Amino acid sequence: MEKQLIVRLKSGLELTFVPNEVSLNNTFIPVAPLLNENDFPLLIHFTHQALVTTLNLSKVPDCVLLHLKEDYSPKSAAFCFNRSEGDFTVQSQCKHVLFIPSPLPFQLSEIESVRLSNKI
Amino acid sequence: MNQSINNNPEYALSKESVARGHGKFPYIIVRMHHAVYMQMPIHFIAEKPIGLTGIFVNSPIDDILENSSYLMKVANEYREHLVSKKKQKHRLCLVLSPLQAYYFEENEIRFSTSIPSGGTLVNSSKNVIAMANSHFISELN
Questions:
Q1: Nearest-angstrom CA–CA distance, A21 and A97
Q2: Using the 8-state DSSP alphabet, how is residue B2 labeled?
Q3: Sign of torsion, CA A26 A30 A31 A35?
């Protein structure tokens, strides 16, 4: 069974992402080590009960973060472009975050929906 | 869309092909036949320069991120062009970097970190421009 995240654009095009998944109970997460072990796209699930997760994006390759609600519908997005040695963190209020490498070949405003699909 | 590569410099992209726009991201790879691929470079330019080949998108902005956001639309329109005008239903792939590709399959567009490589690479005139090599020039991208 293959878990897919399908991003539907307003144009009707549907993009399929088969993510590597990680479930974590921490509220502070260094993301760079996760991307050293897992290719893009990366889907992180937060299993803790806190309201916010802090993601340390220092040394992470250029990518876009899609913050997804519990039903995987998109709530917001963030861009990660590291151009210096300084630390860089973002916070997420969502239960899932999908990391897609940049550049994105579509505009975020074109996203109509995101859904989960399990394909045999 | 991957064949084994041996990176023999004799069959790599020539300087002439690179000068015409081949080997630089982004580009579209069209699977013509088994192990035969056509590369269509994509250029975002305000004016079409002499000597470049591929798909030209009129853009006065020199911003990679801004221009890249139109690539899915460009690739889809090119696929529709192949189907409607040329009556060809080839598989194609939008390649953005050495680790980013969007494969246009029959019923889906699938992201992959594995980009097409190897085989016989031809240009839009069906001339062979590389064989059993990467489809991009790494020192330029």
A1: 10
A2: B
A3: negative
Count of Cβ atoms closer than 10 Å to residue A46 Cβ: 22
Candidates B27, B66, B68, B72: best to mutate against A (most CBs of A within 10 A) is B72
A88 in contact with B, Cβ within 8 Å: no
Closest CA to A80 of A57, A55, A109, A56: A57
Residues of A in contact with B73 (CB under 8 A): 11, 106
Give the percent of chain A with pLDDT over 70. Answer: 99
Residues of chain B with pLDDT under 50: 141
Stronger pLDDT, B14 or A77, i.e. the higher one: A77
Q: What is the pLDDT of residue A82?
A: 80
Distances (CA, A) of A82 to A43, B105, B126: 20, 33, 40
Q: ipTM of this model?
A: 0.92
| Closest to B112 (Cα-Cα) out of A12, A18, A9, A4 | A18
- The neighbour count for residue B6, using CB atoms within 10 Å, is 9
**Structure token digits, residue B30:** 């069209």
Best B94, B95, B109 residue to mutate vs chain A (most A CBs within 10 Å)? B109
Q: Do A9 and B72 touch (CB under 8 A)?
A: yes
Please give the pLDDT value at position A60: 94
Beta bridge partners of B40: B28
Give residue B35's identity as a one-letter amino acid code. A
Residue count (chain B) = 141
> Which residue, chain included where needed, has tokens 């020192």?
B139
Q: Residue A62 in contact with residue A37, Cβ under 8 Å? A: no
